[in-house]
Fold this protein.
Amino acid sequence: MIGKVHYVSAEAGLQQGNQRESMTKTIVITGAGSGLGRAMARRLAQDGHRLVLLGRTPARLEAVAQEIGNGARALACDVADAQSVKDAFAGIARAEPHIDVLINNAAVYEPFLIEEATEEQITAAIQTNLTGAIHCSRAALPQMARGGHIIAISSRTVVEPAVMLGLYQTSKAGLERFTRTLREEVAERGIRVTMLRAAGMMEEGMNWTVSPEVGRRFQEARRKRGIDRGNNPVSQFASVAQLLPWLIGLPADVDVTELMLEARHP
């Protein structure tokens, strides 16, 4: 896709300050307290955007908001809880005239076998990874005008073997189908909807919160199926986050509906 190139004359240079201000967006990120959500917040804050950080752990959100500064707001929100989402977006509406971008990033990634799954694990996977995005999109749309943008973060596991990740895979596949349907619903309103499918990601110092026994079984099951974590490339959260300024800054006459990312060895 080829976008338009705009040149600024010397006379127009006096107006650049106002132009920069008009490019500043109000961006809501779910699951912003850690991982990819935190990395996206860090990157987007560099461009001066007004960020609203949503997540279940207030302390983590506040830490990110303090780190990136620029008036970032942290709001506790469990996307799996419809009332929690309504309350959070009501708070956003009181503070912001509109929402420019919603990034549906919140997700639960926990390996387990279906046969052994608890009710809580099943509910968390589906309600957070899929239903949460539906709740947030529904709440954000009344606050979006033409030019708004909803971005859903999916996973490469949708199209690859998902050892002990059956419900994670299922929820992300549902998220992709929902994203395509939503795109059709809001197209006439001039709102973009993008599905970003990312490969395996990590960051330096990242700690996995599963028990050692679950971790051992997970890795053993992967090895039995020929999935070698040591040889498979893994991308950094910060590297994926670098795409966001480009994606949310697309010219009005182009669109990116689906973006598939692959990790690679540098």
Residues 1-22 have pLDDT under 50 and may be disordered. The chain has one domain: 22-260. The first strand starts at residue 26 and ends at 30.
